[in-house]
Amino acid sequence: MTAEMNREFPPVFDGHEDFITQMEPRRGRPARDFLALSEFGHVDLPRAMSGSLGGCFTSIYLTDERAEANALSYAVREMNDVFQLADRSEGCFRVCRTVDEVRAAFADGAFASVFMFEGADPISWSLNKLRVFYEAGLRCLAPTWSRSTIFAHGVAFAGSLPESGLTDLGRELVARCNELGIILDVSHINRAGFADMLEASTQPVVATHSNAQAVSAHVRNLDDDQIRALAEQGGTMGINFATAFLRPDMQFDSDTSVEAIVAHFDHVVNLVGDEHVSFGTDFDGAGIPDVVGDAAGLPVVLQALQARGYSDDRLERIYHGNFLRVASAVWR
Ligand SMILES: [Zn+2]
């Protein structure tokens, strides 16, 4: 492995990446090797390193079709694929389970990958699989994607989903995650579920990839009351680069400026301070602005934040400190 970490900026720990979805052949495109430079999609190790992207929550993404086919076997297979990737990487790509491991990867210029489930579909009613996945490295969990599970209901992208909050089993899931040391993620959950998660959790919760509704009124974004509530509980939200969640007109349009991204950081910082905002790019999971292009283009955003006059301490919190603060509070 020859990829060198860009040290011009503190490393970014990204709240949400879907690179696993690119590790198998898809829609006529060949499988992509995360360790090799590619022109497809947004992120691989060489592009991450050159973009000062030091690690992420690696999403096991459970769409309707996957969840209904067999979520458990999808999750096991994808986690195994990631372990094999780590094995082949000569230490350049690491599956991390502790804050110390993430910081050590940063120091060594290696990529720190932490497993998360975007949808708790692999966990059945008995919750007995949660402990097993925790031991395998699961450290962040969203009870649902934009669909319904036995735990909660998501915000619908199309059609409609129930507007009720956590189910009784969803409350048990929150308690069990608190006990084990798994960070709870409110991105994708509906309004009532968001309120229930914050009320039920004894620990800070995060929105791994959600923006500010005050800037872009998209249903997937958080309003100011939700952002204040998340901050009061000590959480953080990762700013998502999906153009529809960035733009005031909510259009999928790759001709979107870097200022449109910075506007969401600014809004959250002005509302609740710099301890509650992070990155949640959605690389390989969403259409992002051409001006960024891919992980190698991340410095375009980092430079724009520097140009705002943000102090080094503030930038370090936004780049990785806020997620690691929550991890320190929650992980065992
Ligand atoms: Zn998502």
Describe the structure.
- This protein is α/β, with parallel strands linked by helices.
- It has a single domain (12-330), classed as TIM Barrel (Alpha-Beta Barrel), CATH 3.20.20.140.
- Helix content is 39%, strand content 12%.
- Helix 9 (258-272) packs across helix 10 (298-307).
- The site of zinc ion has 4 residues, from loops.
Summarize the structure.
This protein has 332 residues and is of the alpha/beta class. The chain is 39% helix and 12% strand. Helix 1 (45-50) links the parallel strand 1 and strand 2 (53-61).
Using only C-alpha atoms, the radius of gyration works out to: 18 Å
Strand fraction: 5-15%
End-to-end distance, in Å?
32 Å
Question: Which shape, going by the Cα principal axes?
Answer: globular
CATH superfamily: Metal-dependent hydrolases
Task: Count every helix, treating DSSP H or I runs of 4 or more residues as helices.
Answer: 11
**Count of domains:** 1
Based on helices, strands and strand pairing, what is the structural class?
alpha/beta
Task: Set down the secondary structure blueprint.
Elements: E1 12-17, H1 45-50, E2 53-61, H2 64-88, E3 93-95, H3 99-108, E4 111-118, H4 128-135, E5 138-142, H5 168-180, E6 183-184, H6 191-200, H7 224-232, E7 237-239, H8 243-246, H9 258-272, E8 277-279, H10 298-307, H11 312-330
Parallel strand pairs: 1-2, 2-4, 3-4, 4-5, 5-6, 7-8
Helix pairs in contact: 9-10
The protein binds zinc ion.
